Structure formats: C-alpha cells, structure tokens
Amino acid sequence: MSQNSFGQLFRFTTWGESHGRALGCVVDGCPPNLEISEAEVQSYLDKRKPGQSKFTTQRKEADAVQILSGVMPQDDGTLLTTGTPISMMIENTDQRSKDYSDIARRYRPGHADFSYDAKYGIRDYRGGGRSSARETAARVAAGAIARKVIPGVSIRGALVQMGPHKVNRDRFDWNSVNQNPFFCPDPVAAEQWAEELNRIRKAGSSVGAVIEVVAEGVPAGWGAPVYSKLDQDIASAFMSINAVKGVEIGNGFEAAEITGEDNADQIRMGNEGPRFLSNKAGGILGGISSGQPVVARFAVKPTSSILTPRQSITADGDEVDVMTKGRHDPCVGIRAVPIGEAMMACVLADHYLRHRGQIGERNI
After folding, report:
1. How large a percentage of the chain has pLDDT more than 90?
2. Distance from C-alpha of 63 to C-alpha of 50, rounded to nearest angstrom
3. Is 232 exposed, middle or buried (0-12, 13-18, 19+ CB in 10 A)?
4. What is the DSSP letter of 172?
5. Sign of the Cα pseudo-torsion (224, 148, 242, 125, in order)
6. Where are the alpha helices (DSSP H) in 49-108?
7. Parallel, antiparallel, or unpaired for β 284-285 and 79-81?
8. Which positions ≥6 away from 3 have C-beta within 8 Å?
9. Cα–Cα dist 154/220, whole Å
10. pLDDT digits over 84-133, tens only?
11. Which residues partner with 289 through β-bridges?
12. What one-character-per-residue DSSP string does 231-269 give?
C-alpha cells in the first residue's frame, strides 16, 4: 500500500492498523534544537482519545505516546529535536476484534469495505485496518511536532454545527470550547446538542458535523499561486481525514450566493500596515496567506456504523442486511476537532519551511 505520507519539507508518514499491536508516525524534516516532550505531545492526543464521554466511542485507549527517535535528552530532562526523523508509537490496548466477526464477509454500507476490497483484494475487517479513524491518532502526534516549527502561530478548532443545529455566532466564545464534551464555542448550543445526541445515541444512530479551524499569527506570504496554494493544501489535508466530505475556506460556498461587492475584503492602511475590513477570503488570497486569520471548515458525515439494518452484499455477492455492532461514535465529528487542528499545523509547518527555503528569512 502506497500513499501513507503527507507534506513536502515537513513530511510525516503514518503506520499501523486499528486492531494491530500499535500505530504511529515518522516525522521527517523537523528542524533541530526545538524543545519537545512526550507530555506535550500527549496533551494533544488526550483531546482526541476515545472513551472520554458517553458521546464518543467507549473503546478505552490511553493513547500513550512514546518518542522513539529524533530527540536528544538534555541535562535538565528536556528533549531537543536533532533534525533526524522523529518516530512516535502509540500502542493499542483495547481491541475487541470479535465484535467484527459478523461482518468479516459483509460490506458495511458507507464504509470503505467494498472499495478497499475491490482495490487490494484483501481487507482487515477488524475495525477497518488502515481505513479506520484510529489512524488519526498518529496525525495528532505529528501535529504536536508541527506546532513547534511555527512559533507565534495559534491554531484552534471548534465544532460549529451538529446535524442541522449551528452555533450562534453572537455567542461564539473560544473559552467555552474546552468546557463541554463537544468542543463547542456556544455554551447554549452545547446543552442543546447534549439532549439531541443522547437521543441519537440511544437510538443506535449517528449524525454529522462541521468543524472550524482558525490559525492566527500566520504572516502574509506563505503559499504559492499555482500548484502549491495554501488553501489547496489545507483542503487536501482536511479531505484526507476519515469521513470528511466537504471543505471550505473563508466564507466558502456562501461566496456563490453574494455579489462581488459583498465578497471582496476591502483594505485600508492602519497604524501597523494594511488592515482588512473583513475576512471572507479566510486569510488566503491567490493561494498565498494575507496575514489575516486563516479560517477553514470541513464537514464530517454521520458515522456509518449504526444499529439500523442497511441493505448490502457479501464478498460472495449475496444480498444481506447489515447491522454494525461494536463501539462507535454517534458523532465522529467531535473527535475530529483536534485532528483538524493537527492537519492545519502540519500544512502550515510545511509551508513555513518551503517559504523560508525560497525567500529566506525575509517576511517570516
């Protein structure tokens, strides 16, 4: 299987399966002499790990990370990156492969079972193998390293829509994001979502979501105007996340509904240089960052593993009804928030290094 790596100068490769002994990643291209610790990486993994509330899968994984290479211990106990590949490992400790025995020959509707089998002629039915969202734990670890490469850049994510229910932008508060199990910036919406998702969870069903990721402190100039657009790579990064079916930058699809006068971000001179009067472009103009906050959103489909029987076929071509048992997220979008943050960090770290390589230290 190819295509397990992402990025150019800051590049990471993930490995491992949902029900294998472990999974992890190798980060290549990280500059030397950056201070890092397992505890720091762990803090991001803890936001993604399962079993933290009744609204996520009850699989119990500590997601304890081990940094195996690419760092040098210092006398004070800190670790410094050496510029060599950083390998990290996360052991799987709570697999229940028997939960999947009923679908060993059955294709689950909405999952990658059929297409995976059609491509490779073999699939790991135990949680989906490489197509499982469990792989994203390794991305979050890589994202923790990426954040060290781009000091001064703040990356925050939030769940802004669950099913048809959107947050109220007038109540948007980043301080609320870590105060509820949904990463929701609207405390009123979070209470409403709890009631709705509890009903959906008890019914054995699922619901989709929209995640917004905002990067502040990105200077003007990162990206390229043709084949390495900053927004292009952000879209690619988000679309690579399991269950993502749509991405928008800035006002996204809303741009199709308004006029050019309404869509253009007007500019004036401020005390510290150019000042934009709005940010409908999401901080990216012509594929290059404008210095405004980079704003992107992605839509996550409902979890395909539900208790309602769905029509499908077996690997032998027999028609069957499939009901997926096991431990699954009623809204997989909740745990996608730290994954989206990590992928944004990896894209920005990559573009920072590319920009520095072409332009030098000017405008960094």
Report:
1. 72
2. 9
3. middle
4. -
5. positive
6. none
7. unpaired
8. none
9. 15
10. 999 999 998 866 656 667 778 889 888 888 998 999 998 888 777 788 88
11. 284
12. HHHHHHHHHTSTTEEEEEETTGGGGGGS-HHHHS--EEE
The Cα–Cα gap between 346 and 353 comes to: 11
Residue 74 to residue 79: CA distance in whole angstroms: 6
Terminal C-alpha separation, the chain = 37
Count CA within 13 A, CB hemisphere, residue 138. 29
Tokens of 205: 């069903």
| DSSP-assigned beta bridge partners for residue 28 | 11
Token pair 């195996």 is at which residue? 68
Whether residue 125 contacts residue 322, with contact meaning beta carbons closer than 8 Å, is answered with no
DSSP string, 174-195: GGGGGGSTT--S-HHHHHHHHH
Q: Please name the amino acid found at residue 241.
A: I
The candidate with the shortest Cα–Cα distance to 74, out of 18, 15, 34, 114, is: 34
Burial per residue of 110-139, b for 16 or more beta-carbon CB atoms within 10 angstroms, e otherwise: bbbbeebeeeeeebbbbbbbbbbbbbbbbb
Q: Is the dihedral of CA 311, 208, 157, 61 positive or negative?
A: negative
CA distance 25 to 9: 16
Q: Is 16 left (phi over 0), alpha (psi -120 to 50) or beta?
A: left
> Ramachandran region of residue 230, left (φ > 0), alpha (ψ -120 to 50) or beta?
alpha
Average pLDDT of span 75-90:
94
In sequence order, what are the residues at sequence separation of 6 or more whose Cβ sits closer than 8 angstroms to the Cβ of residue 332? 133, 206, 209, 242, 243, 300, 302, 303
Is the overall model pTM greater than 0.90, yes or no? yes
Nearest to 163 by CA among 334, 339, 354, 345: 334
Q: d(Cα 142, Cα 300) in Å, to the nearest integer?
A: 21
pLDDT score, position 272:
84
**Residues 6 or more apart from 359 whose CB is under 8 A from it?**
221
